[in-house]
Design a protein that fits this description.
The chain is an alpha/beta fold. Helices cover 28% and strands 19% of the residues. The chain has one domain (4-45, 83-240): TIM Barrel. Strand 5 (103-108), helix 2 (112-135) and strand 6 (142-143) form a beta-alpha-beta unit. Helix 3 (164-179) packs across helix 4. The longest helix has 24 residues, at 112-135. Mean pLDDT is 82; it is low at 4-29.
Length: 242
C-alpha cells in the first residue's frame, strides 16, 4: 500500500488546516491528483487490566469498578482491552478502514509518566499490528500524529516554547512518535515544500510563547531526522495564540 495524499481537506475532527498547498493544475500530469482524505483521532492509551496500573489520563474503570464507557466494547472490558497489545490495535485499525477513514492519528502523550506507561509501548504494538496486516494483505489506515499538548503543560502552568528548552521539549515528542512508526506506514502528503508527514496539534492553551519560528524550527529538525517536512493541522485556538 502506497497512498500519497496531495491535499488534506476532509476531517472527522474539527481542525484548522495549516500550510496546505493549492490543487495541482489539470495540465500538470506529473503532480498527484487532489483527493479528499478523512482523518480521525485514535485513542490507544487504554489499560483495562485491573491487575496493572491504570493510565492517569484515560482510565477504563471508575473508582467504584464500573466502566467509564457510555457504550462498552463488543468484547467487553478486561485484560485484553489495552493499547499495548497488537491484536487490540489490529481489530481497531480494521474497523477504522471499514469506516472509510484513510488516516489514523494516534493521540500521543509526551510526558515521562505516559511514555513509561502506554504511550510508546502502545505505538510499538500498533506498528506490529500494521506489519501483520500488510503481511496478510489486509487494508489499513496510514498514520499521522495527534499531539496531546496537555501532556506538556496546563493553562495554569504552560510550557514556554519560546525558550530553547521549551522548543526542544516540544519537538522531542514529535521525534519520539515518528521514530516508532515505520516509514512505510506514515501518511505522506505532497506539498509545495515536498513530501510531508502529518501532525495535528491539540490545544494551544497548554503552551505559551508560540511564534511562527517554532514551526519553522521543528520543520528543520524533522527534515534532518526524517528527510521530510511536516504538514501542520491545529485546533482553532492556535490562530489567536501568541
Amino acid at each position: 500500500m502506497n497512498r500519497r495524499f496531495h491535499i488534506v481537506c476532509a476531517l472527522l475532527s474539527i481542525f484548522t488546516a495549516v500550510g496546505l498547498n493549492v490543487p495541482a493544475r489539470a495540465d500538470d500530469a506529473e503532480k498527484p491528483t487532489p483527493l479528499r482524505v478523512s482523518l480521525t483521532r485514535y485513542w490507544y492509551g487504554y489499560q483495562a487490566d485491573p491487575r496493572k496500573p491504570a493510565p492517569p489520563s484515560i482510565p477504563a474503570w471508575r473508582a467504584d469498578g464500573a466502566s467509564r464507557f457510555a457504550i462498552n466494547p463488543a468484547l467487553g472490558l478486561g485484560p485484553w482491552f489495552s493499547g499495548v497489545y497488537a491484536m487490540w490495535h489490529r481489530d481497531n485499525l480494521i474497523a477504522i478502514r471499514r469506516a472509510g477513514i484513510d488516516v489514523a492519528l494516534p493521540v500521543f502523550q509526551a510526558d515521562s509518566a505516559s511514555r513509561q506507561g502506554t504511550a510508546e509501548q502502545g505505538l510499538d504494538a500498533m506498528a506490529q499490528a500494521l506489519i501483520e496486516m500488510k503481511r496478510d494483505s489486509q487494508d489499513y489506515p496510514l498514520i499521522g500524529m495527534f499531539y496531546d499538548t496537555t501532556s506538556l503543560g496546563t493553562p495554569d502552568k504552560p510550557l514556554d516554547v519560546s525558550s530553547d528548552a521549551g522548543k526542544t521539549a516540544f519537538y522531542d515528542g514529535i521525534r519520539r512518535f515518528f521514530r516508532r512508526v515505520p516509514e512505510e506506514f506514515r501518511a505522506v502528503a505532497a506539498t509545495k515544500n515536498g513530501s510531508a508527514n502529518i501532525i495535528a496539534l491539540g490545544t494551544a492553551k497548554a503552551l505559551k510563547g508560540i511564534r511562527p519560528e517554532l514551526r519553522a524550527w521543528c520543520d528543520t529538525q524533522f527534515q534532518k531526522d526524517f528527510g521530510r517536512c511536516l504538514i501542520w493541522i491545529a485546533d482553532i485556538d492556535w490562530n489567536t495564540s501568541a
